[in-house]
Write a structure and sequence with these properties.
Elements (H helix, E strand, L loop, with lengths): L19 H16 L2 H23 L8 H14 L1 H33 L1 H16 L2 H12 L3 H25 L3 H9 L4 H39 L4 H10 L3 H30 L11
């Protein structure tokens, strides 16, 4: 059998290899790109948008009205170097954490009692309504009248504002509990402690954490206002002094300090607590 001479041999290409330097750069880029999720990119874009708007306002208005981001950062660095920032931040954070702890324990305890007993819920409803209706400035004036200037009136104001939020969140958790789980506990004759630890507590944890997050934001605003009205130190009082002497860069620097206070509370306390309490729930990456 004759073999055609027109058949050309197939050429095999050698595999393409990259220099070691390019391989190292590609590995580094691979480590960076997954960390830049779309959510983080949009968050970074939001921060950039705020900075652009801020800079635009600083360019179009007088420096006594709006300080530029550069002047604000310079004032913030001076406050940090002098020790004023650290001292004020520590004082405000101490008051805020103490008031949040008191308000959370009080609201959670009352919420548990109202969730277990309809009579207790009806009894506490007028108190809840009054606490959530009174304007904040009225409560602050009452605190000044009863406790004078200092830590006690600041803690009083934040506690009064935080407690109803935790109470309502705890009650909301009870209202959204799966009735089939409760029926299952009755069938298996759970004790009161088993009902609390195995059914009620996991069921209301998400609502309580959500309420605690809202309470933290409310608490930051309340503690700053209470310090502004009736305290001798803290971020709120430092903000008041900067406003009195028309130090606009310092004024905006203390505004950034209040954002730093909320960031410390969110990422150092609330986020680890949220991950620990809701660790049984599916994470965001696992959701479709």
């Amino acid at each position: 059998m004759a073999v055609s001479n027109n058949v050309q041999p197939t050429l095999k290409r050698a595999p393409l290899t990259l220099p070691p330097v390019c391989i190292g750069q590609a590995a580094a880029l691979k480590r960076i790109i997954p960390s830049c999720s779309p959510r983080r990119c949009w968050s970074a874009a939001g921060v950039l948008l705020l900075l652009l708007v801020w800079q635009g306002l600083a360019l179009t208005t007088h420096t006594a009205i709006v300080a530029s981001p550069a002047d604000t950062l310079a004032a913030l660095s001076q406050l940090a170097a002098s020790g004023q920032l650290g001292q004020a931040l520590t004082t405000t954070l101490r008051r805020l954490l103490l008031a949040l702890a008191l308000g959370s324990m009080l609201g959670f305890g009352l919420g548990l009692a109202a969730g277990y007993s309809r009579a207790c819920r009806a009894l506490l409803e007028p108190v809840r309504w009054a606490a959530m209706t009174l304007p904040t400035v009225f409560v602050a004036i009452l605190g000044l009248l009863w406790f004078g200037m200092g830590d006690r009136q600041v803690i009083f104001l934040v506690t009064i504002l935080v407690t109803p939020l935790i109470y309502v969140s705890t009650l909301s958790g009870f209202d959204t509990l799966d009735s089939q789980l409760i029926e299952m506990g009755r069938v298996y004759r759970f004790s009161r402690w088993q009902f609390f630890t195995d059914i009620y507590l996991p069921g209301i944890s998400s609502q309580v954490i959500t309420g605690l997050t809202l309470a933290a934001g409310t608490g930051v605003r309340a503690v700053l206002m209470a310090e502004l009205l009736g305290a001798a130190d803290g971020i709120g009082q430092s903000f008041n002094r900067a406003w009195t002497f028309l130090k606009t860069p310092d004024l905006f620097a203390w505004m950034l300090a209040s954002l730093l206070l909320m960031a410390l509370l969110e990422f150092a306390i609330l986020k680890p607590l949220r991950c620990r309490i809701t660790r049984w729930q599916p994470s965001e990456k696992a959701l479709p």
